[in-house]
Amino acid sequence: MDDLRQKYLGAIAGAADEAALEELRVQAVGKKGEISLKMRELGKMSPEERQIMGPRLNALKDEINSALSAQKAALGDAALNERLRAEWLDVTLPGRPRPRGTIHPVSQVTEEVTAIFADMGFAVAEGPQIESDWFNFDALNIPPEHPARQEHDTFFMSRAEGDDRPPHVLRTHTSPVQIRAMQDQGAPIRVIAPGRVYRCDYDQTHTPMFHQVEGLAIDRDISMANLKWVLEEFCRAFFEVDNVELRFRASHFPFTEPSAEVDIRCSWDGGALKLGEGDDWMEILGSGMVHPKVLKAGGIDPDQWQGFAFGMGIDRLAMLKYGIPDLRAFFDSDLRWLRHYGFSALDMPTLHGGLSR
Length: 357
Ligand code: PHE
Hints:
Shape: elongated
Order of helices and strands: HHHHHEEHHEHEEHEEEEHEHH
Number of helices: 12
CATH topology of the largest domain: BirA Bifunctional Protein, domain 2
Helix content: 40-55%
Distance between the termini: 95 Å
Bound molecules: phenylalanine
Number of strands: 10
Largest sheet: 8 strands, mixed
Radius of gyration: 41 Å
Number of domains: 2
CATH architecture of the largest domain: 2-Layer Sandwich
Strand content: 15-25%
CATH superfamily of the largest domain: Bira Bifunctional Protein, Domain 2
C-alpha cells in the first residue's frame, strides 16, 4: 500500500500536462486501475482483513483523486502565469501618433473650381475612367483613322483573345462626359465634370495620370462671347489676384468649331513659377463651340441648340496658383511635400468664406 501511494503521488506531482495526469488517473483509479483491482480483491479476504484493508484502500483512492485535481489546478495556474509573462504589455508607454496628412492641392483646387462654377449655375457631372472608344473618340468626332487619336497617347485596356471589338481605353480627357451628360439630361445643360484622365507622357509638366475639369453649356442662344466671359470670370475668381493675363489663341479640336486655346502669362524665373508676369505663357485650357456632330452623338438637335465646351488641367491650375514647380511631386505621396503644399481639412473653399485663405 505504501509503495502504491509513493508511486502515484510522486508521479502525479511530476506530471507535466493534463494528458499525463489523465494517464495516471486511468492507471491508478480507472476501472482497471491498480487501486480498483486491489479493491476487487477485498471480496476474497477474511472479514478481519477486509475491515482493515477496505478503509485504507478507500483513503488511498481519495488521496490520489485529490492529488490529481490539485496538480490539475497547479498546471492551469502555471499556464496562465506563463501567458501573463509572455503577453506582458506596458500600458503606461506613450502612444505612437499616426502620420497626419493634409488636403492635397488637387483636391483643394477641384473644390475651388467647383465652388466658382456652382456660383455660375453649373452642376457636377461624372463619367467612368475606363471608357469605351466610342465615348472617348467617335462621339467626339474623332473617327478611327483621325490623326488626333495618335496625339492622345492612349492607354488601351486588353480584350480577351479572339474578342475583336475595339478595346476600352483609359479616358484621355474628360470630354466623353459631355456626351454622357447630353444623353442623360438632354438640353439645356450647364455642367462641369472634374476627374482623372490618362495619357502616356512623363516630364516636369506631364504625368501619365492627371486631372481635368470639363465644362459644357448648351442652350438656344449660347455664343463664343458667353464662353469668353465665363472663362475670364472664372480666372479672376480662381487666381484671387488682379493681374491675371489671359491669351485666347485660335486652335483646333475635332469636337469644337470654332476652337480656342487659353494661355496664362507666367514666369519660371529661378525655377519658381509666378503668375501675371514674365514672358512665358502656360496653356491651361482648350475650348470652343460644341461641334454639331457632337450634339447629334449626344442626342441633341443641332438646329435647335448650341453651346460651348472647355477642358482645363486641374493640376496646372494648382501649380500656377500655389507656385508648385514640379508636377511629378503631386503623385509621390511624400508627406513632407504634402505638409508644405497641402491644406487644412477644416477650411472648405467657398466663395463667401474665401477660396484658399
Ligand atoms: N478635351 C480637350 C483636351 O483634353 C480639351 C477641350 C475640351 C477642348 C472641350 C475643347 C473643348 O485637350
